[in-house]
Amino acid sequence: LSDIYIPTSRCIMEVASIDRDACTSIAWCPVTSGPSLSVDRTQCLPWYLLACIRQEVDGRSFTSTGQIEIFNTSPSGAPNASHRLQSLGSCTSKLNFTAMSWGQQTKVTPQSPLGLLAGGMEDGTVTFWNPYNIVQGTNALLGSYREQHKSKITAMQFNPSAAQHTWLASADDSDSLFVWDLSKPSSPVAQQPPGHASTAPSSYPKYITTLAWNNSVSHILAVSSMVGETKIYDLRNKKVALTLNCKDMQRAQSLAWHPTKARQLAVCYARGGEVEIWDLKQ
Question: How far apart (Å, rounded) are the C-alpha atoms in residues 165 and 7?
Answer without folding.
Answer: 40
